[in-house]
Amino acid sequence: MAKHKDSINLTLNAAKKAKNDEFYTQLSDIENELRHYREHFRGKIIFCNCDDPYESNFFRYFALNFNALGLKKLIATCYVGSPIANTLLSLFDDESPENKTTRNPHKIEISEVVENAERGFSMADVAYLLKNEKNVLTRLKGDGDFRSTECIELLKQADIIVTNPPFSLFREFVSQLDELGKEFIIIGNKNAITYKEIFKLLKENKMWIGMTPMGTDILFDIPENFAKELVANKKEGSSYKIVNGIIKGRSQAVWFTNLDIKKRHEELFFYKRYSPAEHPKYDNYDAIEVPKVVEIPMDYDGVMGVPITFLDKYNPEQFEIVGLIAGNIKGLAGIQSKSGKDGPYIDGKLKYGRVLITRKKGR
Predict the structure, then answer these.
(1) With contact defined as beta carbons under 8 Å apart, do 212 and 255 qualify?
(2) How far is residue 129's CA from residue 110's CA, in Å, rounded to a whole number?
(3) Among 204, 284, 301, 361, which is most buried by a count of CB atoms within 10 Å?
(4) Residue 237: CB atoms within 10 Å
(5) How many CB atoms lie within 10 A of CB 176?
(6) Alpha-carbon Rg for the chain in angstroms
(7) What is the pTM (predicted TM-score) of this model?
(8) Dihedral angle of Cα 287, 293, 299, 303, to the nearest 10 degrees
(9) Nearest to 182 by CA among 157, 210, 150
């Protein structure tokens, strides 16, 4: 080592000024969701594979709760090298030219957290963790992409993946997890429900909506320059919200997981009875329209088209997902269209997208 770890804190301020423009999930949103999975985490290796530990609240959450959750290990990697991490790594690397110029991303592996009550233990200072020889910060050989060979090897070692992956790569990210049979809790765009690859997993009960209701805003911490751009060009309440004077980015985001959670076993109860007038059939599908989840008829056993928010309440012991119909979606209906048209039509008018479901026998 070129310098001792005690000199770490002296170099952080300058590096922070050069941090990358990235969006980060709020710690409060992470806490509200992950508190429902505590029994799943004990003795497990958690991998946050799209997370700079110096910025990510996912890493912060697990570091803060490492002992309370009984974690075996916490690993984090990021795609773009953090200026803070690069500064710290320069303290440990030799002074060869390649180490002076490299900007490779890094990984951090936490195997032990010793809480220090006198110090006022805070994981805001990652340097505190690195004073423990059992915890290691090292450079990655590649670019830190979750699809890279070294990141896949880390993925294979992990038990549960918890992160906010790039929305533009969500299909690939989930496909990788499914292929390797990994458990996960991740954030994705709500529109991902309509992706062929994602809906297939939802239909087959290999993936479902997390505990946080789909209608709940998930806000993100954003760079100052991007916040100014949103205020100048976007509508408040739609693209951003102001919380305690701070501009937060707003996204059509939702939690996805394949870990068992309580609400998947909560039975839905209904009061409505089937009425042809209130539940008309679609022009092009042998299924009835149900405009609200609470209006699902208690006595109808055929195919029903319900709002996509039904997935929030879906109990696979009570219902079966048949398909998905919307005007811009093809091949996901699960039943034959009478007219060849895609999407739910009633009296020639296209309705909102619907999930097609049937009630399981005896339920």
Answers:
(1) yes
(2) 8
(3) 284
(4) 10
(5) 19
(6) 24
(7) 0.85
(8) 20
(9) 157
Phi, then psi, of 226 in degrees rounded to 5: -75, -35
- As given in the structure block, the two tokens for residue 138 are 């090292």
pLDDT tens-digit map of 309-352: 999 999 999 999 999 999 888 899 999 999 888 999 999 999 99
Residue type, 24: Y
Place of tokens 């994981």: 123
The string of DSSP letters for 83-112 reads HHHHHHHHHHS---HHHHH----EEEEE--
Residue found under tokens 């009061």 = 271
The residue type found at 273 is R
Please tell me whether residue 226 adopts helix, strand or coil conformation.
helix
* Two structure tokens written together for 269: 């109860």
243's tokens: 């919380």
Long-range contacts of the stretch 197-204 (C-beta < 8 A, 24+): 197/171, 198/170, 198/171, 198/174, 199/324, 199/332, 201/174, 202/311, 202/321, 203/321, 203/323, 203/334
What does the block give as tokens for 139?
């450079």
Residues 6+ apart with CB under 8 A from 322: 303, 333, 334, 335, 356, 357, 358
